[in-house]
Amino acid sequence: MDSFHAPGEPVTVHAPAGTIIGRRAGHVRRFLGIPYAEAPTGARRFAPPVPRGRFTEPFDASRHGATSQRVPLFATTTIPEPSIPGDDVLNLGIVAPAPDGDRGGFPVMVWIHGGAFLAGSPASPWYDGRAFARDGVVCVTVGYRLGVDGFAPLDGVHPNLGLRDLLLALDWVRENIAAFGGDPDRITVAGQSAGGAAVLALLSSPAGGGRFHRAVSLSGGIFGGDADAARDLLERLGRRLGVPPTRTGFGSRTVEQIQQAVIDLRDESGGRLVLGPCAGDDLLPVPIADGLAVHGHDVPVLLGATGDEFDGGAPQETRAAARAAGTRVTDTLFRSACARTAAARRRAVAGTWLYSFEWPSPVLGGAAHCTDLPFFFDVLDAPGVAQALGPNPPAGLATLMHADLVGFVRGQDPAWARATGAPGDPAREYGRPGAALAADTTGVYDPVARAVEKR
What we know:
Blueprint (H helix, E strand, L loop, with lengths): L8 E7 L2 E8 L2 E8 L23 E2 L30 E7 L8 E7 L17 H5 L3 E5 L4 H5 L9 H16 L5 E11 L1 H11 L9 E5 L8 H15 L5 H5 L3 H14 L19 H5 L8 E6 L9 H10 L3 H16 L7 E6 L15 H4 L8 H5 L5 H16 L15 E5 L7 E5 L3 H9 L1
Parallel strand pairs: 2-4, 6-7, 6-8, 8-9, 9-10, 10-11, 11-12
Antiparallel strand pairs: 1-2, 2-3, 3-5, 5-7, 12-13
């Protein structure tokens, strides 16, 4: 399948949202680019999302919809992230098993893409849910507003618009997914990087209750935004664009102009950007870390990180020494979030389980950020995988990791012990050289857990 069109013959679904025409190829049905909200343009820009009205004509869902990303954050990314023009950026795609007699009620995974809350694309071929459909899971990928349009703390603007988009998308899924064979009472919200951070934000929010039943955060981090730092960025951004840093000022510039200006500022500031979910509104009344100690305790959670994230490239011995110190970006931003989340949920009724992805890409020189995605999605043949992982990534590891994720989405508890946030927490370790493909370990998060305990 290319990045835009679904293969196969037309297939029609009659949902509460209206008649939707997708494509079927073998056991997989794809319904792409379905708007769940009105296009956030004109008066709806910088406003809470408005539910899309019922389709009055059959909707052609044969190709991916428009993406919020207009300008990629980096010239080259590990994961392919196509930008697709258009105004209807609040859309979702569904990859579902083909009907099998009266069988239905498949569990559902709603996937949130990464990209630092500034970029990324739900149309990436690495997110194609064909292996999930093969294994009896409905996979939904969601687009949401990014950067200034999604997360700028502007006066007179509802905060956290990107999170509001995601909540509305979850509502659409609950109302419509049964028509596609999914079970609205078995929804797992999942994501990676900024998407994983969004999962933790939704889990910590009083608004998340009842909208999903399980949660998966891959390399998520607890990235609660700093409103003062964000406003400083907006001041500088306004000067660059020649507008006041207000809703009216930014509304006079196109999304492309704003995203390009953000990239230019990123280059000037050494890569540090500060837009993302921010506490202080009805969605996030307290910081995410505090909200995790209060909300979502009835939701089982699976989370973890790659062994090196953004710290790859060094010799194995050097990486091991830096990891033991617990001071790398990988440890302070990503692995610490796993330990902190487990600690915040130590009194939760539902369990928390940790994993660590350790397979080193021979191309990237470590278990780098995003390299676990083709394994969890079991898409080692997808475009861009060989360039990131080399010509022969271990298919057995993909089979095993994908099966673990499918089992969790189906409602099974992982086979390894729960985490509590204490030093020496158990975790499942995937792909460490010289070890079994998966091993249940103690102490994978030791350096970070000790650091958390000392605070």
